[in-house]
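Entry 14. Structure prediction run on the chain below.
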Amino acid sequence: MSSSNFPGALDTTTNLPDNITDSSKLNSPDHANLHNTLSDAVIAVETKLGTGATTPILGSVLIGTASGVSEWSNAYLNNYNIILYGADPTGTNDSTSAIRAAQNAASNGDGGVVFYPIGTFKVTGSITLYSGIAQQGASNQGTSINMTGTSEDLFIGTDLSGVQFYDIFLQGPNTGLAVELILAGLVLVMYLIWTFVILLLSSLVPTE
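Output returned:
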C-alpha cells in the first residue's frame, strides 16, 4: 500500500493521520478511540473523502464521483439497497415506489439481490418480482414488510424462476391470491356438505 495524503481541505480532524507513514498520529489515542466506534470511524472516512453523508448504508460501498464528493452506491455490487431508492425503514412513509424501483433496477441490470436493511417497510400495492433476483433481508426478526393494502397481492410475477427470499418477515392482511384460496376452500366445503345432505335425504326415501 503506498502512502497517499487525504485532501488537506477536507481533513477537519487535526489529530488523525494524513497518511500511513504518519506514525505519531497513527499511534495517537484519538486514532485508537476512533476505531472503537464503527459509526465514528465511518463518519471520519466520509469527512476525509468529502461526502456530505454521515450514515453508512448497509449493503453499499462508498465510492468517489466525478464531482469530487463521495457517495454510497451499490451499482458495482449487483446489490440493490432499497434505502438508496427512497424506502423508509421507520414504516411511516410508503415504500412501495422505492421497492419497485429497486426491483426494476435489478431487472434492467445483471440481476442480483434486492436488499432490505433493518426496519419496517410500509407497502400499499403489489411489488412485481423478476426471475433471477433474490430478496434479501438483514434479519428475519429485524427486517419486515408491512402490507397495508387489502385489494392486491404483496408480490406478483409471471413465469418466475430463481427467485428466493431470505431473512424477511412479511405481515399484513390476507389479500389477493390468499383470499381467492380461502373462498375456493369455502366453496368446496359447502359443496361437500350439500352432497352429504343429498345422499342422506336419498337414503331416507322409501324404495318400492
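The radius of gyration is 27 Å.
Filed with the rest of this week's runs.
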